[in-house]
Amino acid sequence: xxxxxxxxxxxESHFPSLVTVNLEQKExxxxxxxxxxxxxxxxxxxxxxxxxxxxGRTLLFFDEIQACPKxxxxxxxxxxxxxxxxxxxxxxxxxFALREFRxxxxxxxxxxxxxxxxxxxxxxxxxxxxxxxKHMDAYRVGDELGDAVHYKLRDLLRTYFFVGGMPSAVAxxxxxxxxxxxxxxxxxxxxxxxxxxxxxxxxxxxRNMRHVLRYAPRNIxxxxxxxxxxxxxxxxxxxxxxxxxxxSRIVTLVRHTSGNGVPLGxxxxxxxxxxxxLDIGLCNSLCGLSLPDAPELLTVQEGGLAEQxxxxxxxVADSSFQEHPLFYWHREQKNANAEVDxxxxxxxxxxxxxxxxxxxxxxxxxxxxxxxxxxxxxxxLNMDKPSIGTFKATISSRKETHDLTYTLLSLPLYMAxxxxxxxxxxxxxx
Length: 430
Description:
Elements: H1 3-14, E1 17-22, H2 38-49, E2 58-63, H3 69-81, E3 86-89, H4 94-99, H5 120-126, H6 130-138, H7 147-163, H8 167-176, H9 179-195, H10 203-215, H11 226-229, H12 235-247, E4 251-257, E5 268-277, H13 280-286, H14 294-300, H15 302-316, E6 326-331, E7 338-346, E8 349-355, H16 364-373, E9 377-382, E10 387-397, E11 400-412, H17 419-428
Parallel strand pairs: 1-2, 2-3, 4-6, 8-9, 9-11
Antiparallel strand pairs: 4-5, 6-7, 7-8, 10-11
């Protein structure tokens, strides 16, 4: 899904030599790892590939490492015995493979990095739009943003909605600006993605994973109900399939939290969540989007796509060496439902995030959250130019009336990746 492409591109760009060992294709190499002797393994790999493997000069890449669990256990010895040799390991549904792992893990000797699709900012750089990318990095709350830059970024965002952030899809579009080629690339990725299911679980589990994968992209932003996925499959079986997809990062679960304080995960629900897909381009592909449908989809489905996009951007905004779960808030009461799309934690502050694809719309749910939680700062992402202001509202909540005064930071959707930075800068200035 892009990991092989990225690692090999990185290796070719930064090392004199690259040796890729695909342990799914090269089953005859599995016996190398029966004895955990890194120097011997490197020598035999060098002979096998007829290529020198030299510390400091060679990147050794173990691809599809889940196919050979003993190779995972050997990684600690590469660190201890050959500390100057650069080694990267990657695998399909690797988190699931590690859950079933029967060998002792090399704790403290391996750095884990979570690989996500390219962000909108990275997409801009790939398109050669360095100036507008740098302009977003330099933006500060209260700065003016000119119409020309704003409309250009909106157009580029709509392109990203279709292309997405899978590296091979972005490379195809960057090279030829051909959306049909992007469509073919995404179709290939979705096919191979589902072919990967055959590596794990029973046939029934594979079928259930496909059920969930068909459901999720059509229901972005909606609370997941197993009965809506399939009435013929037991909820427990669908839950298992969803857990596998969540472990593989193909589906991300945005969990409900009460939002009373930090950490948000302390009050997260295990039974109330909304699905997101790995990538917005794959989301469109799995929905069966074809080029003639694109303008209509980007108009009719913009609400779900906007929430998918913002979730992707928030997920990659922080460091890649640890998980960054996503949360939302809702209140279900008769004739008084309220829902906030995302909650972000900044030090001891909980900041609600409202996502709008088009016109600003009502901020009632946002205001209900602020009133109930006694918060005074909120954010909104929509298609308008950035702004900040102070607003007043009267909120009726739980048979009480609240007079609310709050500050609203409103940003264009294309600045979703800058949201956490701008929240921190604004709060620190107070």
